[in-house]
Specification:
Structural class: mainly alpha
Low-confidence stretches: none
CATH class: Mainly Alpha
Shape: globular
Number of helices: 13
Oligomer: single chain
CATH architecture: Up-down Bundle
Order of helices and strands: HHHHHHHHHHHHH
Length: 317
């Protein structure tokens, strides 16, 4: 009988093959590592904004899942702060601290989380719907807001306090932020399915969303280097401890304070234990924030997830 571990492994292996395909294309000279920023711009300027808008438009926050979303948001934010403190204490360089924060905070809930939730709560579509709402608003939205800001601040594009206003201005005018606002607005507008062009537009956005995983895998493959930078093993140890141990513990503990139902508590544990989000290396590459380190950290996270995800779920739930 399949287990959560085997289900994670299937998803991980499929994604790993895509990453290795990108790496192989780089080795063969079909693509170059210098192409990575171009793919990152394509993702952050077009594919990701379309995905954000589609997800927020089709999944709006209700009162029933406000508390789980808040817990998910707080656990990711706490991980962001803890990873920053750890980076300072271990005296990592500035870009590495930024990469550590991006990789260690909000996990890959959509890539691996949705299939696992669907498997764990078989024949319970409501659980998957709740998982999507918690993930998109408690994980996805903070990724889109915080990670670009962290990458801008700690990457090569930020040179001091004088650039702070420009950083904020650039972000507020970016397609990512604009798509967040538009998605939240449209989620509150009552537009019935079947209305003129609505279904067509949603289908087009859904198709665009399908490119997200493939383009992210290519970027990860182009940036991937199996020669770790100095201090990598300390970085990966800290990152795994924060992302896959501290964060699910925080979510589990907070769920007790909020009297969250057993089902939603299990969903929170699963989502908060997810490995690093594949968008981390994208933002790192886009804003010169230790992209190679971020890529190898993410790849390592995903590789060990078949062991750690079911282990933490069994321990906490």
């Amino acid at each position: 009988m399949p287990t959560i571990g085997s289900h994670v492994a299937e998803t991980v292996i499929a994604f790993t093959l895509l990453v290795l395909a990108g790496y192989f294309l780089k080795r063969k000279g079909v693509l170059k590592q210098e192409d990575s920023p171009m793919f990152a711009r394509l993702l952050t300027q077009a594919i990701l904004p379309a995905t954000i808008f589609y997800q927020l438009w089709t999944h709006h926050l209700s009162g029933a899942n406000f508390a789980p979303v808040l817990i998910m948001f707080l656990s990711g934010t706490a991980a962001l702060i803890v990873s920053f403190i750890a980076g300072v204490l271990f005296k990592f360089d500035r870009p590495s601290i930024g990469a550590l924060m991006i990789i260690s905070s909000f996990g890959s809930s959509a890539l691996i989380g949705y299939p696992i939730i669907e498997y764990t709560f078989a024949n319970n579509p409501q659980a998957l719907a709740e998982g999507i709402a918690i993930s998109e608003l408690g994980v996805g939205l903070p990724i889109f807001i915080f990670c670009p800001l962290v990458a801008m601040y700690f990457g090569g594009t930020f040179k001091g306090a004088a650039d702070l206003w420009q950083l904020v201005k650039d972000y507020l005018l970016s397609p990512i932020f604009i798509s967040v606002i538009l998605g939240l607005v449209f989620s509150r507008i009552d537009i019935s399915e079947g209305a003129l062009l609505v279904d067509t537009i949603r289908e087009a956005l859904k198709m665009t969303q399908g490119a997200l995983v493939v383009i992210s895998a290519i970027i990860l493959g182009l940036q991937l280097s199996f020669q770790p930078a100095r201090g990598f093993w300390t970085l990966i140890g800290v990152s795994i401890a924060v992302q896959m141990f501290f964060e699910p513990w925080f979510a589990h503990t907070a769920a007790g304070f909020f009297n969250i139902s057993s089902e939603n508590r299990q969903i929170l544990i699963l989502i908060s234990t997810m490995p690093a989000a594949i968008l981390g290396p994208v933002f790192a590459a886009r804003y010169n924030c230790a992209a190679k380190t971020a890529s190898l950290l993410t790849f390592t996270h995903i590789a060990i997830s078949p062991i750690l995800v079911p282990a933490m779920f069994a321990f906490l739930s």
